[in-house]
Amino acid sequence: MNPTRIRAYFIAFAKGYLRNPIGLFFTLVFPIILILIFGAVFSNTGSSAVALYVENLDHGSAASVAFLSALNSTGAVQVDVVSVPAGSSFPSYLGTQGYSAGLIIPAGFEADLANKTPVDIPVYTNPSAASQAGIALGAVAGVESAFNLKLAGGSTVLSSTQYNVGSQIFTYIDYLIPGLIGFSILTSPMFSMVNISSTWKRDKLFRQLSLTPLTRSEWLTAAMVWYVLLAILAAFVMIFVGRSVFGAHVSVVAWMFPFLVAGPVLFVSLGLVAGSVSRTPETAAVVGNVILFPMMFLSGTFFPVSSFPPYLQTVAHVLPLYYVIDGLNAGILFNNTAGALRDLLVVVGVAVVLFVLAVRVFSWRER
Amino acid sequence: MNAAIEVTKLEKRYGAVRAVDGIDFEVHAGEVFAFLGPNGAGKTTTVEILEGIRPGSSGQVRVLGKDPWVHGRELQRLIGVIPQDFHFFPKLSPREAIDLYAALFGVSASARNLLQRVELDDKADAMFDTLSGGQKQKLGLALALVNDPKVCFLDEPTTGLDPRARRAIWSVIRSLKAEGRTVFLTTHYLEEAQLLADRIAIINLGKIIATGTPGDIIHTYGRPERLRIDGDPRMVDRLQREVGLPVLLEDGAVAVEIRGKGDAVKVLNWLDTSGFAYSSFRTSQDTLEDVFLRLVGSSDQATLELSPEGDVT
Ligand SMILES: Nc1ncnc2c1ncn2[C@@H]1O[C@H](COP(=O)(O)OP(=O)(O)OP(=O)(O)O)[C@@H](O)[C@H]1O
Ligand SMILES: [Mg+2]
Question: Looking at the 3D structure of chain A, how many domains does it have?
Answer without folding.
Answer: 2
